[in-house]
Specification:
single chain, Alpha-Beta Plaits
Amino acid sequence: MFGSVFKMQPKPGKAEELRQVMIGEPRRPKGMITAYLLSEDAAGNVWGVAVFEDEKAYRDNAADPAQNAQYQKFRALLEADPEWHDGAIEQRPA
């Protein structure tokens, strides 16, 4: 698996709208396993996690014009670009 942990700083009063753009839209990228958003932290940041089958699926999504269109929607609600931490995901056996 491959994915990203990311931190976003919504503009004042835009956290709920950001949440709707991020998780309220029906688009499901090919190869995506799951995605999560955490509640705002004390500083007002929204953290998230996106998990894909593999790095190729992750990179293909990043290059997809539909993903860029969604990114532009949520980027307009942020104070600055998101902080991304990409990498391979290792899963502990159940």
